[in-house]
Amino acid sequence: MKSLAKEVAALGQTVLVLQGGGALGAYQVGVYEALHDAGIAPEWVIGTSIGAINASLIAGSKPEDRIAKMCEFWRRVENDHFVPGGLPVWLATATRNSLAVSSGVPSFFSPNPFAFMSPHHRLGAEAAGYYTVEPLRRTLEELVDFKYLNSGGTRITVGASSVRTAEMRYFDSRDERIGVEHILASGALPPGFPPVRIDGELYWDGGILSNTPVEVVFDDNPRRNSVVFAVHIWNPHGPEPETIWEVMNRQKDVQYSSRAAAHIKRQRQLHKLRHIVAELSKLIPEEKRRDNRISDMAAYGCLTRMHVVRLLAPALDYEDHSKDIDFSAQGIRRRREAGYRDTIETLEKAPWREPADEIEGFILHEASGGRMVETAAAH
Asked: Which helix (H) or strand (E) holds 279?
């Protein structure tokens, strides 16, 4: 397995993209742990919401401390300490969810009592949420070394949505200093959590506009050959729901998958066009390439190659629409174990070894629960 590290490194930079999804983010811990055990160290981590939190724990810790820090975070947010043992699953879930709504989640968020008085009560722009995330701020300040995070060892990018302009904003440690406020902004999902003000602008959760921020890699300047591990914790594929309960569960999967398939299809097409432009530019005589107009057009070409390993987290057998607030010790453990197992199985298949058309710059390898469901380039 360790030999895979050199193989992956030879393909280009290693990028880890982490989707938002509350408690489902425990799956990402297992994914990172599997990569770590295989000797694969991401050079760049990109996250939204809970993905931004996990990304900060990775980039803001020394490699040998990362798994311990991630596990400590998830241990602190367990919220079933006061749920009696021996209850049926449905009753334990209902009790735990009621506690989360009424009391919050330890080390993460707690109720803002003024917000519950009236929806018209003026809370102020930076406090307009049903809960306060001051507990999360303290947790991150304790577990994340922001000085180390900004030292340049591992690049981190987190996404947030501008409240005023409805535009996506990516904060990148390559270009600016990242602090706890950027991580909080990326996870400020309304109306539960209040927006976070950065440089005079208010920001909400990045998942509102792009919950799977993989496009950052393909729009980077300059682009580099890459192996991108994109972790999807909301399942884009699912059966037709037949009950209202099933509808609520499927609705969340559809909403927070965030048109990932459409984004990927678009990026595959764009990157193929870049390759075509680059190949056609080679056919132009040297003397004509000196023409500014020709050279400007040729600049749209790009011969970088992106292997995107899309890891789809399978649904657990007892999940329902409240799965993103299932911060139970068992739920966290099962998702972490699934992430580790699925990633190890996917790495063993080494899908990037499959032959691909030379004209393709974006090669998708899709795995669900460790099982390859697609290995293809765009047509």
From this structure: helix 260-281
Best CA proximity match to 331, nearest among 317, 351, 312: 317
For residue 191, the tally of other CB atoms under 10 A from its CB is 12
CA distance 37 to 229: 15
What is the model's pTM? 0.92
For residues 324 and 21, is the Cβ–Cβ distance under 8 A? Answer: yes
Contacts of 282 (CB under 8 A, 6+ apart): none
What would the two tokens of residue 142 be?
């304790």
The pair of structure tokens assigned to 30 is 């297992």
Sequence-ordered list of residues with C-beta below 8 angstroms from that of 67, at least 6 positions apart, any chain: 29, 32, 33, 36
Distance, in Å, from the CA atom of 342 to the CA atom of 339, rounded to the nearest integer, reads: 5
15 DSSP assignment: E
Whether the CB-CB separation of 139 and 107 falls below 8 Å is answered with yes
Angle 49-14-352 from CA coordinates, rounded to 5°? 115
Q: Exposed, middle or buried by CB within 10 Å (0-12, 13-18, 19+), for 189?
A: buried
Which residue's structure tokens are 């947790």? 139
For 245, the 3-state DSSP assignment is helix
**pLDDT tens for each residue of 148-204:** 999 989 999 999 999 999 999 999 999 999 999 999 999 999 999 999 999 999 999
- Cα–Cα nearest to 308, from 225, 210, 370: 225
> Do residues 74 and 24 make contact, with C-beta atoms less than 8 angstroms apart?
no
3-state DSSP call for residue 285?
coil
For 32-87, what is each residue's pLDDT tens digit?
A: 999 999 999 999 999 999 999 999 999 999 999 999 999 999 999 999 877 877 77
